[in-house]
Amino acid sequence: MAVHVYGDDTANSPKAAPHFSRKHSYHSHLRNMFLERDSVSPTPASTPSSASPKPLVYHVTSYGADPTGKADSTDAILAAISDALKGPANGFLMQGIVNLGGARVDLDGGNYLISRPIQFPLAGRGNLVIHGGSLTASDDFPDNGYLIDLSPASNNGSGYNYEFVTLRDLFLDSNFRGGGIQVINSLRTNIDNCYITHFNTQGIQVQGGHETYIRYSYLGQHITAGGDPGERNFSGTAIALSGNDNSITDVVIFSAATGILISGQANTLSGVHCYNKATSFGGTGIYLKTPGLTQTRIVNSYLDFTGIVAEDPVQLTISSSFFLGDAYILFKSINGVVNGVNIVDNMFSGSDNGIDIVQLEQSNSPFNQIDQVVIDRNNVKGMKLKATVARGSVQGNGSSWTTDFNSVLVFPDLIKQVQYTFITNGSSFPVHALRNVSGNKVVIQSDVAVPASVHVIADQGGGFLLKLIKEIVFFGSCL
């Protein structure tokens, strides 16, 4: 078997020419160089010694991998990765992580059949790239396996298994035999420009570690562009994050029962397009299974006929996103907690079926610990607006004015703050006051009957009106 290697041997490069005195002119120096070249007979190139540095590019075809996908290439690809992991060290990254200096395992644009996971044989390595080809699971590939598995066969006892491993420009076909990529307890992993399909478990699973960045990738159990006749039968999860400080950016999920499942904190989703399985078929675009401490930001994303579920959300932001096809946000109560939640500046579009844009699931327990929740400034077309800040007006001639906010406010029987404006055109100067806020109804009463208009702002989260009052006070102090 011929193994082709690529690299530069700088250790055996010719020595630099001796330094010439400034007294010699440039032309004299150049003439002497030509004379020396003509007077010395050429010598054969020296054979690299066995001590020459090993290459940093490992081509799997040089190890016998079949780029046509006809023969099993598992052993050949594992041999290339094993050599890369045993390659020359360039110091360390995190403690216990050997820096491989940017070594690359090149799939040479081939399509390779594999019968078992490409699992790293060694832990404690970093600064490695695997790129440029396709992997397809064989018909006897393990059902619980992953095509690429960053969980070491043997552990070195380090705090992290790997650091700065990049998986780039890959097409992964799981052949409905397991998952695509698994990353276990690793640091600063990049999954970039990958297409992962035909998984029956997870397209990408991340457990432990942190700072896994998934970018510019496409994931789907079935290859479709929407409206698939088999959509109600889609299963599996496209991306499962069970770790902290991860990021998913500019990713499309086009088929799976669950698009993204998050069970760790401090994760960011941006530019994500989920049309994996419609909510009406039982699908979920993004599921936040982090009750009591969510710390997740979802921004500039597109929920396409599938929505977001958040269990007991604490510190959650959903903003500048688009919800199409009656897609909505659902708060699921585990212990009845909602705290530090901002759902603002989103667009919702539906089919005029009266679907609320934010809904509550309280079968376990009612939400009774609600604070710092702002659901506001969202626009709606063909759906029912819900918010924690509601505005209403009522006119009449009498001594009592009632504004009912039940059609707008998210939480039942909860109003924490009220601001109202009382306007009367009569000659009298009545005394008026806020009398009741129970049942999400605000009651204003006056001591005498007068014709009046009453404008009311009711806040369930407790933060909006405080901010508004501070702004009014600040503006007044500037006058």
TrEMBL record:
<dbReference type="Pfam" id="PF12708">
    <property type="entry name" value="Pect-lyase_RHGA_epim"/>
</dbReference>
<dbReference type="GO" id="GO:0004650">
    <property type="term" value="F:polygalacturonase activity"/>
</dbReference>
<dbReference type="InterPro" id="IPR006626">
    <property type="entry name" value="PbH1"/>
</dbReference>
<dbReference type="InterPro" id="IPR024535">
    <property type="entry name" value="RHGA/B-epi-like_pectate_lyase"/>
</dbReference>
<protein>
    <submittedName>
        <fullName>Polygalacturonase QRT3</fullName>
    </submittedName>
</protein>
<feature type="region of interest" description="Disordered">
    <location>
        <begin position="1"/>
        <end position="22"/>
    </location>
</feature>
<dbReference type="InterPro" id="IPR039279">
    <property type="entry name" value="QRT3-like"/>
</dbReference>
<feature type="domain" description="Rhamnogalacturonase A/B/Epimerase-like pectate lyase">
    <location>
        <begin position="60"/>
        <end position="277"/>
    </location>
</feature>
<dbReference type="InterPro" id="IPR012334">
    <property type="entry name" value="Pectin_lyas_fold"/>
</dbReference>
<dbReference type="InterPro" id="IPR011050">
    <property type="entry name" value="Pectin_lyase_fold/virulence"/>
</dbReference>
